[in-house]
Specification:
Layout (H helix, E strand, L loop, with lengths): L3 H7 L5 E6 L6 H13 L2 E7 L9 H11 L4 E5 L10 H14 L6 E4 L4 H8 L2 E4 L11 H6 L10 H4 L4 E6 L6 H11 L3 E3 L3 H8 L8 H19 L5 E5 L2 H12 L4 H13 L2 E5 L14 H18 L4 E3 L3 H13 L2
Parallel strand pairs: 1-2, 1-4, 2-3, 4-5, 6-8, 6-9, 7-8, 9-10
């Protein structure tokens, strides 16, 4: 029988690659770098810096891009990564020490397309691999994309590009014109609308009492959220959304007197999920469609939703008037974003 030492001696030398950067955003040039590393090494680490001073898209989302597109690599999130860049001995030494500190093991190859490849690879005792340094294969930069993301969308994977879409959500009680304005804006901006999934789900799944279970409400909220993400893949600058998990949570509390922990979490995530939030006012006639309660409930629900948004610290704009007047209000606010 082969001993442990014999197996160890017979194991071929494993190569470990490192790619680092801000990935602000992850573009086709970065992907070439990662794919080259994966092709040449047995395992690959990708170190991504926080860089909140450069890009507003959070680190965890940018890290998710890489994990989603390259599940075979090990992503290291550098929340406390160096902020300074330059070629002074002090800056280079600080960067080198940080990289060595966060790496779980030594690397054999360092992949980059930048001048710093030489000093970083030397500090790590790794082979310096330069990839498309003159940007001839992929003629793009993060700066160009940050300045004009929609113009250079061909250099972004759809999974990355979706996070450049501005998600605009419309809340409000029953019969306040949410679906109407969402459709109107999607048509005006030639982009995607995400309609309320609650009615569709309720029609297919409600029980004999006309209710959904706590677990079904969670599923409803998850599917609605997934539809938002899917719409971002084909949208143009904006995605207009009719309601979100905060509304679903309201109905859970109304009909069950409790909220499933998962739904509660999805409602909390709404705080940072949307780029703008509008509440449609109750100043239009109440329309009964056979499933809504009454105008008194509409007013009560509106007050509860506004109170909830305020307590969550979610800023919103109240839309009043006719559809045309509401569209003008939204257009003005979007122009200031």
């Amino acid at each position: 029988m082969e001993t442990t030492q014999e197996r160890k001696n017979s194991t071929p030398f494993l190569t470990t690659g490192l790619v680092l950067g801000k990935f602000a955003p992850l573009h086709k040039g970065h992907q070439l770098l990662i794919e080259t590393a994966c092709a040449q090494c047995d395992e690959v680490f990708v170190l991504i810096y926080d860089s909140r001073e450069v890009i507003s898209i959070p680190l965890h989302i940018r890290a998710d891009w890489i994990r989603h597109l390259y599940p075979e690599v090990i992503v290291i999130e550098g929340w406390d990564g160096p902020l300074e860049s330059g070629d002074t001995p002090k800056i280079k030494a600080f960067q080198e020490e940080y990289i060595k500190r966060v790496l779980p093991k030594p690397v054999t190859h360092f992949f980059s397309s930048e001048w710093y490849g030489e000093h970083v690879s030397h500090a790590l005792g790794a082979k310096n691999i330069l990839v498309d340094q003159k940007r001839l294969t992929v003629p793009i930069s993060g700066t160009l994309i940050r300045n004009k993301p929609h113009q250079y969308k061909t250099f972004l994977d759809p999974y990355v590009y979706k996070d450049f879409m501005k998600k605009i959500v419309f809340l409000g009680a029953e019969s306040t014109g949410k679906s109407t304005i969402v459709r109107a804006l999607a048509e005006k901006y030639q982009t995607e609308a995400v309609m309320e999934y609650g009615r569709e789900y309720w029609d297919a799944h409600h029980d004999e009492n006309g209710q959904l279970s706590l677990e079904q409400l969670v599923e409803l909220a998850k599917v609605h959220r997934a539809r938002e993400d899917r719409a971002c893949l084909s949208a143009q600058q904006y995605v207009f959304i009719d309601t979100n998990a905060i509304t679903t949570r309201y109905y859970s509390q109304l009909y069950h007197g409790s909220v499933h922990p998962v739904l509660d979490r999805l409602a909390r995530l709404c705080f940072s999920r949307y780029d703008a939030c509008f509440v449609c006012d109750t100043d239009i006639p109440f329309e009964q469609d056979g499933t809504r309660r009454d105008e008194q409930h509409r007013n009560s629900m509106q007050q509860t939703l506004i109170k909830d948004l305020t307590e969550r610290g979610i800023s919103f704009d109240l839309l009043s008037g006719s559809l045309e007047e509401r569209v003008i209000q939204v257009k003005y606010i979007l122009s200031k974003m």
